[in-house]
Amino acid sequence: MLSTLDANKYRVALASVYPFDVIIPSSFFASRYILWRIRPGSIVLLHDVGTRGERSAETLTLVLPELKRRGFGFATLSELIELEE
């Protein structure tokens, strides 16, 4: 798989916080899980298709203010790649 990704100039990024949003359809659970597991440099994976996207938006509404209060900053993977290059 990695050789195919490399041949097509794709990069691989793995999430470090996966709040099981596909299995457990609860924004409350996902937000509490993220706030429990987050560390500086974490990559959080949330899904955005259909109703999952609505839950992800709700989860972020719950999580982002608390993370800001804790002093976290936010970046997309694209932004992180640009910093690396």
Specify the number of helices. Answer: 4
Structure summary, number of beta strands:
0
CATH superfamily: Glycoside hydrolase/deacetylase
**Low-pLDDT regions:** none
Task: Indicate the structural class.
Answer: mainly alpha
Distance between the termini: 23 Å
Task: Explain what you see.
52% of the residues lie in helices and 0% in strands. It has 85 residues and is mainly alpha-helical. The protein has one domain (2-84): TIM Barrel (Alpha-Beta Barrel), CATH 3.20.20.370. The longest helix is centred in the last third of the chain and has 19 residues, at 51-69. The two termini are 23 Å apart.
Structure in a nutshell:
The protein is mostly helical and 85 residues long. Helix content is 52%, strand content 0%.
Summarize this structure as a short list of keywords or feature phrases.
85 residues, 4 helices, mainly alpha
